[in-house]
Batch of 2 targets.
Target 1
Amino acid sequence: MNLNMNKSSKRVEAREEHCIGCGLCQVHCITAHSRYPHDIVKAFKRQSPRPVARVRLEEARPVSFAMQCRHCDDPKCVKGCITGAMTKDSETGVVTNQEDRCVGCWTCILACPFGAITREETEKKVAAKCDLCGARETPACVEHCPNGALKLVERRGGK
Amino acid sequence: MILTSNTPEFLIERNKERCIHCQVCVRQCANKAHYFDEEDGKVDSIDINCVNCHRCVCLCPTKAITVRKFPLEFRENSNWTPAVMRGIYKQAETGGILLSGMGNDRPYPIYWDHLLLNASQVTNPSIDPLRKPMELKTFIGRKPEKLDFDQQGRLITPLNCQLELDLPIMFSAMSFGSISLNAIKSLARAAVELGTFYNTGEGGLHQDLYSYGSNTIVQVASGRFGVHPQYFNAGAAIEIKIGQGAKPGIGGHLPGEKVGLEVSKTRMIPEGSDAISPAPHHDIYSIEDLRQLIYSLKEATRYAKPVFVKIAAVHNVAAIASGIARAGADAIVIDGFRGGTGAAPLRTRDSVGIPIELALAAVDDRLRQESIRGQVSVIAAGSIRNSSDVVKAIALGADAVYVASAALISLGCHMCQKCYTGKCNWGIATQDPHLTKRLNPEIGCQRAVNLLRAWEHEIKELLGGMGINAIESLRGNRLMLRGIGLSDRELEILGIGAAGQ
């Protein structure tokens, strides 16, 4: 399949020069992927174990940035997936993991060149990664970044 | 010394029901008022480190944090107040001068709040700025005594160089060093967008700022940091800083901690060295000396740029201003005692100088009496807090105003008064690269623009209410002002009637 023919390709871009290393992206990512996507306190206090953050804060002060799935044009995780759980949507270009098909073999984690996939062990062992917050118009991390350090960019026509 | 009488000024309250121990507060506090206890997996606070800047409060995702005055009571005493005693404890431990940041916070009268504006009723119509044109354009510079025209009606009187402002508000002097480059970029971009000017302060002009030159006022202060011909010619106007409202009589202070590589290059001083400006300009000991400097600068810029002279509002300010006008300045900036600063000795800040309202009225009166008001523009500075302060300042006689504290508040400043520590959690008064990132100049510019655009609308509304359709008609129009709760002497100095008159 030629994945470069996608109609669009969205991803979150980090602006290192504006990242203040506050970690709010992680807090809101965890909340958005919890059972209480609109209540931070409940997401953190009621759900145990709580979901992992799909965005990672990389920090060596003063340099810092938030890193998540690049939704690659030619995703290694999709190629490596042994069950076909990891797919790239041909319409939106978003790479997602279908958790019911994922068996937690972690091949995608080994394959990802960005280290953007982590292990989610809240219910069953599955690979967790940025899904651009699915139905939300703007991903939670982008919406709540206090300094404009995360931007959702959309490129039409694949590359 | 183990014994200390210093106690916390603030108490950090954490709502345990809401705190999720996410450590955002820990990561954001440069004063280390929050910490994470690895063993307990919990966030906790060290109250004595808190300066009450609200950074944690604003960024806490669950709004779990409140900061209060520390409840420890001293024995009640109207004379020996906690602030007075704390000052003594600090000096007993350090032997140093007490420092503070931002302007005078003592409860002196704020005359703006004792001035009331007029509005049109029945006999003269008010104007609706949403439906009718309203002019805020302002020109700063020496105006001709009279205008001559040739037979075709063309102007033949040569005009002096002028600064053209789309609204009568400029950003006043704040140096690179005292504030971060991102803070300056925010204001520089805002000045471009608003059609006004920002001022370099005495910190020189960073390489990145040359592109904003046509909206820049470059300052020459007693330390002469970063002053060279390119610097003059990059700016639209030059300001000679004699004094500053927050600390009249003394020069600028920039602690060596804030002098990093970029500040050092821009100021042309060694990295890490304290930048202590001399109290006076060593070449100015008289009005004649000032005239020499004014004309040296005019020569250096081929008489193409207005030269401002900035002084602190002090006793006899009117006579001093008259001298400055006669020395050839194109504009006089008067900075009242509530003006901000990055660092000032506390006792100077709180006890030296006079309010801008009285100084402005006195200067405008004196220049009119001497028939030299047209020779100079008068710019009022030193705590212009909102649009009605601007309108009142112009009615008292100012051509334009300078704002700095209000501009910084728009960028996020919470007036914690700790600018001199270089640990500004809002990324404004700091040079620490981890902290300066916190101010994104795109966001900063937008916020500063929003603030002045909002003021612009409000000024137009207030003018319209008075039946005035151009700011020019309000300038020095003290009939539009009345005083409330003021003594006869104060009303006389302000040159206004009492409310009800």
Target 2
Amino acid sequence: MADKSNDPAAIWQTMIGEMEKGFNAFANQAMASPEFSKVVNQVGGVTAGAQKQLGDLMEKYLVSMNLPSRAQMVSMAERLQSIEGQLNEIKAMLHQAQQNSGGSDDGVAGARPPRTRRPPSAGGEQK
Amino acid sequence: MNAAAGLDLASIPDRIHSEVQRAIQRSIKGVEYFSTSGPSLGSTPKDILAVRGTMNLYHYRPVADEIYRVPILIVMATTNRGYILDMVPGQSFIEFLLKRGYDVYMLDWTAPKPEEKSLRMEDYVLDFIPDCVRRVQRDSGETDVTVIGYCFGGVLSLLYGSIFADGPMKNLICFTTPVDFREMKLFQNFSDRRYFDVDKLVDSVGNVPPEMILSSFEMLRPASRAASQVQLWDNIWNDEFVKSYRMFDRWATDTLPLAGEYFRQTIKELMWDNKIYNGTMSVGGRPVDLSRIKVPMLHAVAEHDHIVPYDAAKALIPKIGSADKEEVILKGGHVSLVAGANAIKRLWPKLDSWLGERSI
């Protein structure tokens, strides 16, 4: 078996791993300081505010171009989602009705197996 | 062998040959990597039982001839997608449970829409989870339900279990669930109340964008993304490594936004006031007391979890009122505890042996 301590590929991988650990540990120490929190939150607050303003501006631009507004698109998506939800409800009800009648279906979701399973220690060998 | 240098001279030609082969493979596979989309995830057959806003309830189709009486409802973390538990065949926790004879449902989340920014903890704990439990009962025909919560899904499950202590939860399993938020040291510092104006943030953005959530996770290990890309290039000749890298990378970057009010509550009540740990938490006016949870409980935690450090999770089991409770510490990190090769060897068999006898 090749000696790992002389394998350049293994040395490289170990080095990357150690560098990663070392940098993470160093960064974690730095990030634990209150100064770090202060700076990050100042920058984060400004960025979030700028993003919000940009979003508002874009919305006004879309309206002026006679394109559907975000609110209209969201409303349309909501209606679609509501229709999808109702279809799923109908599907689940049909599935339930089929189960109750004991019939088999087209293989989409077959009849449920019996709830009689026992763990290996309680009821013999596990299937 | 050259003893002085510790070199096996006879192996050098083979080594050079192997490295040249890998270099060629890297070039070929590197092109493939950028021209293909990666494995299809979350493909275990399932039926969608309900979709309501951010809430999605799936039922996975049983595969065993005989299943355990008590169905399982998995409550996913609100920050991430549920397919971490259903990666690809052979590496899917869901598939494992189905093959072992469990009846599995999952409460998964989609991105809350701008109109859902007002969702609060109350909506999750007093509405979404109980609604899904009722639907599981109706669909399975069983009264009892085992609840499994992953990460913050575990926190929501605890709140639910404490408030609805009289049933119908039969067993509770939490994976890497924090209760002592003081011990999430870096998150504490990121959200230091002296500098972090959560009201201003939520009031200005509505829902907290996924990029912000992802950055806060990545900041915990800032060198890891760069290092993982170097490792990818090193191993790009290895199809299995690349497949695994793509699965986990896709999931990790597929972070969900968080509903604004829910985020505000999480910061104020958990990160700042540590209310669950202090026993002062209430949801919708209903007090949360973990000692009211008397059902069998298993808490699985990871030895090297950088997101939920053990110190933040270890207080959970002592606070639970059940006589049948167990904490299991397994090797691995926050994600490798539940998915991937490590989980297949450690967590999944442990969970099966614990849950099987409590599911009849």
